[in-house]
Amino acid sequence: MKQQKKDGEAVTTSTSSQKKSSPAQLRIMKDLNELNLPKTCSTDFPDPDDLLNFKLVISPDEGFYRNGRFVFNFRVGANYPHEPPKVKCETQVYHPNIDLEGNVCLNILREDWKPVLTINSIVYGLQYLFLEPNPEDPLNKEAADVLQSNRRLFETNVSKAMRGGYVGSVYFERCLK
Amino acid sequence: MKFKIKSWNSVAIWKWLANDDKCGICRAPFDGCCSDCKIPGDDCPLVWGVCSHCFHMHCIMKWLAAQQNQICPMCRQDWALKSDLP
């Protein structure tokens, strides 16, 4: 009631019964409404009332990572879209641009972020990482070196990791669909 | 027939003349306001860059304030306000 009184003079276009959303929430709602997921991707909202924290599952249907299933956690901060969401890979993956802690090296998640980009742009960026791992500027240098020097061995290592097993001294959990 | 006008109400509509219908930063319609404002109109105006891209003034100011390089978030060209409006 108090809130209503305070807002009494202001003209709002939305209906008054809604709780006021933050700018980040308003923007993420628009992003999610316009989300156009490729058929290899799906989203999951552990708390349906919290649009700022969700998961994206990518199951590539071609390339080195075909048949794998990779889960990314998105945390959208209060400063969105002026700052990019924090995205971490929760599935351990043998990938030049994703380290073993789940940090992801994707330009638009860091230096090339701009507020006109959307969640959709990030989804496509992440999907692209699985189709075209980029051995330049790597986070997992070992994987990058192998990709550059011996594509066949890289392919073998990726399958080994996805089936669950050791690549070098690192154990990977199974992540096949 | 004669009649006397006792009172009258004038009605006007307005809209921003932008080359798009939504602000690329907040994604709200230009004829609405940025997500920090409540009343559309002169208090939440649009601005144009020389690159021809257009945003809510509050949205682009917030973006530029956080950046070292003053570039347009749409095209990455140097951002400068366009002074001669259409």
CATH architecture of chain B: 2-Layer Sandwich
What is the CA–CA distance across the termini of chain B?
46 Å
- Taking strands numbered 1, 2, ... along the chain, how are they ordered across the largest sheet of chain A? 1-2-3-4
How can the largest sheet of chain A be summarized?
4 strands, antiparallel
Number of helices of chain B: 1
Strand content of chain B: 5-15%
Secondary structure elements and their pairing?
The complex is a heterodimer of chains A (177) and B (86).
Chain A: H1 2-6, H2 23-33, E1 41-44, E2 53-58, E3 70-75, E4 86-89, H3 119-131, H4 141-149, H5 151-163, E5 165-167, E6 170-172
Antiparallel strand pairs in A: 1-2, 2-3, 3-4, 5-6
Chain B: E1 46-48, E2 54-56, H1 57-65
Antiparallel strand pairs in B: 1-2
GO cellular component, one term (chain B): anaphase-promoting complex
InterPro entries (chain B): RING-box_E3_Ubiquitin_Ligase (IPR051031), RING-H2_APC11 (IPR024991), Znf_RING (IPR001841)
Subcellular location (chain B): Nucleus
Short description:
The complex is a heterodimer of chains A (177) and B (86). With 177 residues, chain A is an alpha+beta fold. Helix content of chain A is 29%, strand content 15%.
Key terms:
heterodimer, A: about 180 residues, alpha+beta, four-stranded antiparallel sheet, 5 helices, 6 strands, disordered N terminus, B: little secondary structure, Herpes Virus-1, about 5% strand
Could you describe the 3D structure shown?
- The complex is a heterodimer of chains A (177) and B (86).
- Chain A is built from 5 helices and 6 strands; from the N terminus they run ααββββαααββ.
- Chain A has helices at 2-6, 23-33, 119-131, 141-149, 151-163, and strands spanning 41-44, 53-58, 70-75, 86-89, 165-167, 170-172.
- In chain A, the strands form 2 sheets. Chain A has a 4-stranded antiparallel beta sheet with strand order 1-2-3-4, covered by helices on one side.
- In chain A, helix 4 (141-149) packs across helix 5 (151-163).
- The model of chain A is unreliable at 1-17 (pLDDT under 50).
- Chain B has one domain: 2-Layer Sandwich (Herpes Virus-1), CATH 3.30.40.10.
- The termini of chain B are far apart.
- With 86 residues, chain B is mostly loops.
- Chain B has 1 helix and 2 strands, in the order E-E-H.
- The A-B interface holds A 10-13, 22-23, 26-27, 30-31, 81-83, 114-116, 118 and B 24-28, 32, 34-36, 38-39, 59, 62-63, 66, 73-74, 76.
